[in-house]
Amino acid sequence: MFMKSEISLLQKDDLEQFAQVIVHAYPMPYQNSIDDCIHWIRDSLKNDAASIKYYKAVKNGTIVGGMRFFDFQMNMRNVMIAAAGMGLVAVNPLYRKEHVAKDMLHFFIEENDRIGYPMLVLYPFQIGFYKKMGFGYGTKQRMYKLLPTSFPEGPRGQLLFLNGQDAASVSACYEKHVANTHGTTRQSQVNFEKMLKNFHLKAVGVKSNGRLEGFIIFSYKRVKPDLVYENDMHVHWLVYNNREALTALFGYIHAQKDQIKRVYLNTQDEYFFSLLEDPTNGESDAFNSEKLECYTTALGMMYRVINIPGLFRAYKAQRFGAESLTMKMTIRDSFFQRNNTSTTIRFDAGYAEVLDDLKKYDVEIAMDVSDFSSLFVGAVPFEKLLQFGLAEISDPAYADVVSRTLNYPKKPMCYVYF
Ligand SMILES: CC(C)(COP(=O)(O)OP(=O)(O)OC[C@H]1O[C@@H](n2cnc3c(N)ncnc32)[C@H](O)[C@@H]1OP(=O)(O)O)[C@@H](O)C(=O)NCCC(=O)NCCS
């Protein structure tokens, strides 16, 4: 049995010890020296205090681990909810496998449950590690590697270069996008300003009626280190609020065909390929030549629901399909006992009400919290969980009704990385 770590907010006096944990935990630190790392954390403590909190894990007076929490506003099923993110998880290698990370994860869940956040998110360093702790898969990322001519050539409208002075209009354009896009999180204007001022990033926008309706932020990378004039374009952000904006941005990319070899574009839009005249990536390793390779995929953001009744109460004004039924949900949560529970919910033409009486229901479903989290965010439908044996149902005749109630037709999109 290992001694439990004490978790608390990082103080200014802790910076040196905390930085030592970071540089030892991450074999490839972002900084060149311990002083760089200290400055980086000090700057963040000062500038990001409104949205990022740093925590330390202590055993016998020594800092053995650290992490930081992010406050996000996330469009989840068309409702803006508060979601907490966790990053920079680091454990001093001298104290590994003593459950320091487990203690920190527990604290992350407890603390945000106390504050009343129903949803947690993170980017996993290893999927299995967090899956065991109740985090579910989100949407697949797709990395396209396209010829510029694959982008349709259409009217380019009113294109312009964007710089630091355009941060407010870029931010307003993105806000509009977030209001209409499931899974996206709000971003501060300062973040956009930093990107737009970064000399190595280029930004092109498109205006209509004087308002910015779409933008791309990208960089160039040489195809080979010595080939000065042979570059790929790496698109980091593609945001558009209407069809005209998308057409104009694609027209811009198409017009760069003399200069750009391939366009690298990372998207969670599962239908993106249907927009392109040639979605292939020029590789044939995975499928020989009978089938044409289009993109490579990865799993990114993971999601975790920590309070099932609280979550459904937060959605009382939102419809879950249009069915009327009483459903008992039994969620297995081995990592967070308070959430390892059954909840009975009455859906009235899709409107959910959490009931106190657990005994009277039409159908009971059961599953692990990680799978429920994926289902709630729309990353996987109920019928698939049932087919794979990841969910159980008391009466199979209700399977379609439960699917129509709990499924969400869109997969969550997310642009932030933390
Ligand atoms: C990854 C890293 C944070 C792990 O830290 P660690 O303190 O060694 O990990 P832990 O000892 O807490 O391991 C997790 C424990 O929780 C346990 N656990 C996980 N889910 C559980 C569950 N649902 N119920 C009970 N226990 C659970 C695991 O079984 C494991 O215990 P075990 O080793 O006895 O099996 C650390 O190696 C590190 O700092 N790596 C470098 C930086 C990095 O990659 N950070 C992550 C970025 S996201």
How is this structure best summarized?
The protein is an alpha+beta fold and 418 residues long. It has 11 helices and 19 strands.
Question: Describe it for me?
Answer:
There is one protein chain. The chain is α+β, with helices and mostly antiparallel strands and 418 residues long. It has eleven helices and 19 strands. The protein has helices at residues 15-25, 34-47, 100-115, 127-131, 167-180, 189-197, 243-255, 308-314, 369-377, 382-387, 399-406; strands spanning 6-9, 52-59, 62-76, 79-91, 119-122, 136-137, 140-146, 158-161, 202-208, 211-222, 231-240, 260-267, 295-299, 302-305, 325-332, 342-348, 351-355, 363-368, 391-393. It has a seven-stranded mixed beta sheet with strand order 1-2-3-4-5-14-6, with helices on both faces. Strands 8-9-10-11-12-7-13 form a seven-stranded mixed beta sheet. A five-stranded mixed beta sheet has the order 17-16-15-18-19. Strand 9 (202-208) and strand 10 (211-222) form a beta hairpin. Helix 5 crosses helix 6 (189-197). The protein starts with 5 loop residues before the first strand and ends in a 12-residue tail after the last helix. The model has no long low-confidence stretch (mean pLDDT 95). Coenzyme A (COA) binds next to strand 4 and helix 3.
